Amino acid sequence: MTWAEARAIALRASPSAPVEEVPLSTARGCRLARPLTALVPVPGTDVSAMDGYAVAGEGPWRVLGRVLAGGRAHGEVLKPGCAVEIATGAPVPEGTTSVLPYEAAHPLAPTPPTHDSPTLSGEREGVWVAGVVQEGRHVRRRGEDVGLGEVVLGAGTRVTPAVLGLAAALGHDVLAVHRRLEVAVLVTGDEVIGEGLPEPGRVRDAIGPFLPGLIAWAGARVGPRLTIPDGAAPLRAALMPHPPAVPDRATSVPPGDGAPASLGDGAPGSPAQGARRPSAQKADAGRVGWEGGAEIVVVCGASSKGPADHLRAVLDDLGAEVLVDGVAVRPGHPQLLARLPCGRLVVGLPGNPFAALAAALTLLVPLLKGERYEYGERMTLAVTPAPASPTSPSHRNQQPVHAAHQAPRGHRHSNTRLVPVRRSGKGAVPVGHDRPGSLWGAAMADALAVLPPGWDGEPVELLELPD
Ligand SMILES: Nc1nc2c(c(=O)[nH]1)N[C@H]1C(S)=C(S)[C@@H](COP(=O)(O)OP(=O)(O)OC[C@H]3O[C@@H](n4cnc5c(N)ncnc54)[C@H](O)[C@@H]3O)O[C@H]1N2
Ligand code: MOO
Asked: Is it true that domain 181-372 has CATH number 3.40.50.850?
């Protein structure tokens, strides 16, 4: 299968996330399932936009009282020549024609008024202010910002902090959102350790640590993460969704935690799921939250053809439909995508960490983004001369694009190649250090350049790396 076909299949297989009503406090990052409408107008009534005086008609004005935001409203209609002292956000009395800010207000001494005030008969009493106002100024009218029932955001909008504030202002306590897809992670490999310095023959898990960031970046939720021993039985037990189960030697980390816990102390693998008592299954399930309903399970390692690589056999055993079984891409060719009979999707990532990252960008990110997936921009690859000799010290950092680009016709690579690059004014520059077992190049890169089979120097698509 070509790399482009594999990505297209993953995009088509993207599961739709269920809709649920969640409180505002947990909605951030989700997508709105329905348009957001105003349950109340904003402002809810005519209010002052300034601290000062709500006035009616021409000045000077006799000040009849004071209205604070959240306090008692002025109960009577404001008649021409009258004012109330008012706070920003407080409801202006009916009859208000504008607000005179404190800065523009001049208090007047208690002398006879210059015109016939309706509230005075000849003498000016109490507090008076004067000033220049413009009709309607500094009064926010009911519904002026958002009208009652108005649709302010469409379905599909991502819930950002600003969206949460807006929803609250419009009267919402809960939002109908598409729940973020949940991804469970199974790290396989008896040689893989979760922390500390690996002894010879052991290796630090380098995939488990990058997956949570990648999954969150793609808009999904990190579910349970388990480290399971090599062997078909633990893998089968961990993949079996009904009833939820976890092998005895599996250890788990709560979502979003650090590195996966290490393996147990060498006890044999768990018995097959069917041999376990229901109570034990339940306890294990509770321990790891596996019943949380992850729509996608990522299996790291066990994807190839070695004696400890059981993924294909186990999937076959479970009656899974295999959608992608190996891809003509370097690195990452043993990657896999399958659907279990219950609908849960399984993504198999190769054990080599850079190969796993490349495979995650090929299959997992399109699955998680679905309709939101965007193809990368195209850019020219800035190629520099290849090292003089394969044995020269710089050879291990050589940029493999050159060899292929310069290869004679008919001998070009039949695989797509994913090459870590940095953007520059000259185009996308390969950063090297791109062997399947090392994330060094990817760690220095902005993106992976997609060089199709037979690439001949034309601009290439850049697959964004999670920031
Ligand atoms: N006969 C064949 N052998 C291999 C093939 C093949 O087609 N035929 N493909 C090679 C390629 S390419 C890759 S990639 C690997 C994929 O192997 P697996 O997915 O089965 O993974 P493992 O064998 O378990 O491990 C491979 C390699 O990666 C290290 N590893 C595993 N997990 C982790 C981890 N979480 N963090 C860091 N490193 C990890 C493991 O120690 C091995 O060195 O198969 C090739 N072989
Ligand atoms: O997936 Mo492997 O090279 O292609 O490491």
From this structure: no
